[in-house]
Design brief:
Layout (H helix, E strand, L loop, with lengths): L30 H4 L12 H8 L5 E5 L6 H9 L3 E7 L2 H11 L6 E5 L5 H7 L1 H5 L2 E7 L4 H5 L25 H7 L2 H10 L6 H11 L4 H11 L12 H11 L2 H15 L5 E6 L2 H16 L18 E3 L5 E2 L2 H6 L7 E7 L3
Helix pairs in contact: 2-3, 9-10, 10-11, 13-14
């Protein structure tokens, strides 16, 4: 059976934006320069921190379960010649972009369709998954720069567009369709769960009264419900758009299923890392990893564990890692990113 053997950490002065593609293993530029020469599909956050977590892993497969434009996957492959990456995404545009970006790595990279909640079956059905072991799983939650910037997807209030918001635009109901069947009580709950506390009820009623079919109509309905004097810093519709996206894509269920699957597929010594972007997501990640670390033990700390619970992981640190001020200055979307990680251990 494969067992974890720590490796000496290699230099992290590698990145991928301008690497020599004559060899997929040729690291030639610095992490700092990567931030200034990114693929236009998506600017990944906390790249240095992700590379630090995975580059020292033994030979095996890292599953990037939300591969997006493959910024993290590219950096991992460039930094660690012993690793291969299975990139997973439900967005066909993301898979196409990731495939182009990772093409120089040949059979060290594979792209698969699916949501991270289906991680176990995706790994089982992939060529790289069969070659194992799975030494890492990365979940970068939320919406990509491309999805926000592509007005036709309906994720942003900046441009009027059809109210879609599906990660996979080929299946499932749109946000507009969801709003035709949900009642005000349920919609208010969804808004509260995603941080819209004070005006959730008023916003829910206004939105359902308007029955918006475009992002512009949704924004107007939200603005009607929130008095000008009560508007916080940032756009008044931000959390409403976030809440609808989370609900339309069943992101809460996907996160719970994805974390459970990640812990199952990881080999002993494997690392799971999750980047979240709002407090609800981060709370789920923190709670799940803490429960996995304690084995669910709820014995009083002063008495020690007497219930026989067995932990599955060791959490890297109690608090989440944040983007540096320099990264936030380069990429303001990194401001809300929270990184948590844990290493799987033998029972």
């Amino acid at each position: 059976m494969w067992q974890y053997r720590p490796r000496t950490m290699r230099s992290l002065s590698i990145v991928t934006a301008t690497r020599d593609t004559s060899s997929a293993l040729s690291p030639v530029v610095t992490i700092e320069r990567l931030q200034m020469a990114q693929d236009t599909y998506h600017v990944p956050v906390l790249v240095r921190e992700i590379v630090e977590l995975f580059a020292s892993q033994p030979a095996g497969v890292v599953v990037d379960a939300t591969v997006g434009g493959a910024g993290h996957a590219d950096a991992i492959l460039a930094a660690a010649p012993q690793l291969r990456v299975l990139g997973v995404d439900r967005d066909p545009e993301a898979r196409e972009a990731a495939g182009r970006r990772l093409a120089p790595y040949g059979d060290r990279a594979e792209i698969a369709a699916g949501a991270f909640g289906d991680l176990a079956s995706i790994v089982a059905g992939s060529a790289l998954g069969a070659r194992g072991p799975i030494v890492g799983v990365l979940l970068d939650l939320g919406v990509s720069s491309h999805q926000l910037d592509e007005s036709s997807r309906g994720f942003s209030f900046r441009v009027d567009a059809p109210l879609d918001m599906r990660m996979d635009p080929t299946q499932g109901e749109t946000a507009a369709q969801y709003l035709t069947r949900v009642d005000a009580h349920e919609l208010a709950r969804v808004l509260r769960d995603n941080g819209e506390q004070r005006f959730a009820g008023a916003i829910a009623k206004s939105v359902l009264r308007a029955q918006p079919t475009t992002t512009g109509e949704l924004t107007v309905a939200v603005e009607r419900a929130v008095p000008m004097a009560a508007r916080r810093r940032g756009h008044v519709a931000t959390r409403v758009f976030q809440a609808l996206r989370v609900e339309v894509n069943a992101e809460a269920d996907q996160l719970a299923d994805g974390l459970a699957a990640a812990l199952d597929v990881l080999a002993i010594g494997g690392v799971v890392a999750v980047i979240s972007y709002h407090s609800g997501e981060d709370r789920v990640v923190k709670t799940t990893l803490r429960e996995a670390e304690t084995g669910g033990c709820q014995c009083p700390p002063e008495l020690g564990c007497v219930c026989g619970a067995v932990g599955r992981v060791v959490v890297a640190r109690a608090s989440a890692r944040l983007a540096s001020p320099a990264e936030v200055a380069r990429n303001p979307r990194a401001r809300s990113a929270r990184l948590r990680s844990a290493r799987k251990v033998a029972p």
